[in-house]
């Protein structure tokens, strides 16, 4: 059975014009004889009545009293409403369709409300409806425990529903429809000659997502990667093919891998750098500081342990708590607010010694001090002042020739 | 286990002040040591985003294309949202509570979407939560098929959920909270000295509901009646005890039965009387006319078969269709638009020969012609001109002394 999973985000369903685009993508695949599973998010933008945020606002009418179980039950209604709406749209066009909750679609999860993990997908019912020739619409972002409790999958949950269904049904591809044309070499709000990428590897897109690019949730990518199901990130509002995401090796074999050292840039704003001077030996500093951060749920990044002490960064939201904790421990940290993290990502940079040299040269020429750096096989991170972010992104984008990414229709 | 089922309608949850009243009723019972199952309808009034009507409007964005199965799935979200909202309200007050869908509450139905019948209630989970000391909130109006499909119970569905749960759990009483003070002797918009009733029998309230009084759905009453569970219809906005509904015999035994021949009045407006002259023998007329009506789903009432032909009534909405059908059959009906049906209801009128005499006298004195009449053991119906409805109701109300119904706090 030739099968595709399509996922449409909430904005794709919130007005008549967008719904027409959704219908076009569905019809195109049906006309090609493809079987379809369509995953939908909750409707609309923040503030619209059936959006997830509006349901959450309802939940917060009484403070944060709503138990997690009931919060998930409430939120799951958002996607169910979307699914039935799309079903009515298809049926009105004479397209046979069925709308299923996550549980009805056989998506079983553990009981971690708010961020449940998919444990199993029972595909009997999906296959039954597919063999009846129906488009199977599945409410995204949700599953069910074996006890019949509604659960939600947390951030990026509908992407996860889509790739997990794709993996379970051995789909030819999972198309993630969104409001952008695909994955770009950098955020176009910051880099005006950012270019669309025809293909990236699973690892690269995970790096981009983990480093602040709003693309597709890493958990969703991980599931696709394990099953080897290709994913496309593409626009609801055009017929471009978007960005193909698959194994680097597949891209190389198919000759659609550009074999560049650097594929794209990502960034995170609102970072605070904290420096603590070592007094009682590095192990002690490290242990006490990071234990305190962990016990308060503060994510740390750019950890740089030196004989003289330790540097690390936290998100600006957490900085006051972090500083307070350090003072309780008897440390007086040096605080540098207003930093940004720039990530230079490329599956091809592994072992290429020149990449860091290009970064240092580009930023130095632009008069941008590097406050800290870190690197892995496929990513180099630099910490800079946030007020120099636009210049830093632009100069790195140019230095790596990302503006020369081949033009293509996507 | 001393257990009460409370049911709150949509208007009881749609604003902060109403929710405070709901909380008061719940707290009062909890303080008395009573276990509680609380059934809720969808929030709000027509036009509010989470009201049933608003969800239906969403469903109708694409005409009437939405299949019944998906329509039920969509509508069921309205009550689930209400249930979680009430759960957050209780939890914020430190009251342990759990919100369940109809299916999770063990309410199983057949697969007649839109008007499913309850086939079984599995009480294990309800009993488990009750024994944990939790208030169990159940989304009304819905159930689940054994296959896990969400179903809705049709009109009056939340009342049905409440009485069915009351019957399954052997509740001491089912309290139906609404925006009126209980059941009145007549509609107060038409009869200004209408009085609240302290008690009515199951049969009487069924007659009232079937004859146009907006009280509680007959199906809900029937379930309570079979199980012998008393029901109270009472106001969310006061502490009055409302109207007790139970077996006539129980009311008599407890001395709270007023032993009146007539308990109350109900009415239906917008009725059209059709008269067909018999040509080919009465059986033929009857058969052909009523078959045609039935095959088009037109409800008929006040059927009066005579040697000369047949009189009957239809609702004004159906009258054009009915007239068309009669003409197709070769009949030219006499049509009287603008009629109203008045029902005089009383469990004590059985065998009392004087009741019809009082009706005829009252209406004759008021100059109101009786266009047609019918009667059963517990109800007499008269058809009159709708423009004389107010006068007719008022004169009957006075003639039967209903304005003298004992004053009481309800």
Automatic annotation (TrEMBL), chains A, B:
The keyword Nucleotide-binding applies. Catalyzes the phosphorylation of the beta-carboxyl group of aspartic acid with ATP to yield 4-phospho-L-aspartate, which is involved in the branched biosynthetic pathway leading to the biosynthesis of amino acids threonine, isoleucine and methionine. Keywords: Amino-acid biosynthesis, ATP-binding, Diaminopimelate biosynthesis, Kinase, Lysine biosynthesis, Nucleotide-binding, Transferase. One of its GO terms (biological process) is lysine biosynthetic process via diaminopimelate. This is Aspartokinase. It catalyses: L-aspartate + ATP = 4-phospho-L-aspartate + ADP. GO terms for molecular function: aspartate kinase activity; ATP binding. It comes from the Bacteria. InterPro entries: AceGlu_kinase-like_sf (IPR036393), ACT-like_dom_sf (IPR045865), ACT_dom (IPR002912), Asp/Glu/Uridylate_kinase (IPR001048), Asp_kin_monofn (IPR005260), Asp_kinase (IPR001341), Aspartate_kinase_CS (IPR018042), CASTOR_ACT_dom (IPR027795). The keyword ATP-binding applies. GO terms for cellular component: cytosol. Substrate binds at residues 52, 79. It comes from Cohnella endophytica. Its EC number is 2.7.2.4. Belongs to the aspartokinase family. The gene is dapG.
